[in-house]
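Changelog-linked ticket: flavin-adenine dinucleotide example.
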Amino acid sequence: MEKMEDVVVIGGGPAGAASALWLHQLGLRVMLLEAGPAVGGLQLRSPYSNVWIPGLLGKSGQEVAGLLQEQLRAASVPHIPGFRVTSFRRVDASTAWEVSNGSRTFRARYVVIATGSKPRSAGFVESDCVAIGPGISMERVSVEGRRVAILGGGDNAFDQAGSVLRRGAASVDIYCRRRPSAQPLLQRLVPARHVHVGPFDADQTHMTVNGIPYDVLGVQFGFDACIPGGLEVPLRAGCIDVDQHGAIPSLPRIYAAGEVTNYWHPCVTTSFAHGIQVAKSIQLNLLAEAAESASEIAQEAVVEC
Ligand SMILES: Cc1cc2nc3c(=O)[nH]c(=O)nc-3n(C[C@H](O)[C@H](O)[C@H](O)COP(=O)(O)OP(=O)(O)OC[C@H]3O[C@@H](n4cnc5c(N)ncnc54)[C@H](O)[C@@H]3O)c2cc1C
């Protein structure tokens, strides 16, 4: 068993990294646990140059992840990559939680869940001709001169279809069960005759959709929040339901931040902000608890006198 931390942060994407950085710089004992090989979260999947994150124009998602790694190292924020939290247990309602990967356990007064989300696979398996989710999964598949089918009708489906056409695909068809929900700007990237709305049957083994053969399938069915096991958390629309401080009112001393929550529009900037808000809320709670116990000690001293 490790020493007691003030806070364990689970997940090293933008939300968890921002939270851990602030908690550490606010003088608290923090440990950041990341399942993947490096900090950065979904930004590690993005080779694209960003136009959305204020102040980081032109940096790719992977570069943004690299900057986060560099900043955590420079500030000496304790963090462990390759640590997937698999269980979560309340030791004592008022004092501690235990978080473990099965072989190593951390105990902390507060826990921040910042486990983000992952692309839905819907039973498909990534291969050299099947991509799941946007970004590097699509980019590593060769599309030049090939027939591509994209499954899904949201922003990512149309955005990735546009990217596949720019990369020289012979054709791209979009299959979506309902009317596409992508922004009109993105829908214009694909000619209407290549957008098929209604039930469809996609078969990875034979690489067909509704019996039509394709060279590449791109599965773009959106994302699911990653909820760590061992804990009953309240959900809203599949995400952890938090209050305006990032707290989960039914679970004392547990907070959640970023894309795993229902709170804000998911992007890097809101994830940073949410992680920071949670860090400040926890610091204020700890200060209030310290003040309360100091006043209890002072009262006991007065009684003894
Ligand atoms: C291809 C692509 C391009 C994008 N481009 C942009 C852009 O240009 N601008 C922008 O603002 N946003 C962009 N986004 C969205 C942005 O990356 C996300 O909104 C943001 O990363 C969410 O941050 P997060 O920290 O909440 O979650 P994530 O980034 O999902 O991080 C969660 C982390 O938790 C870890 N984790 C999960 N479960 C566990 C566990 N049990 N134990 C330990 N660790 C765990 C995961 O490994 C992951 O590292 C893009 C996303 C993609 C996929």
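Closing comment: Example verified and attached. The chain has a mean pLDDT of 95. The CA atoms of residues 79 and 305 lie 46 Å apart.
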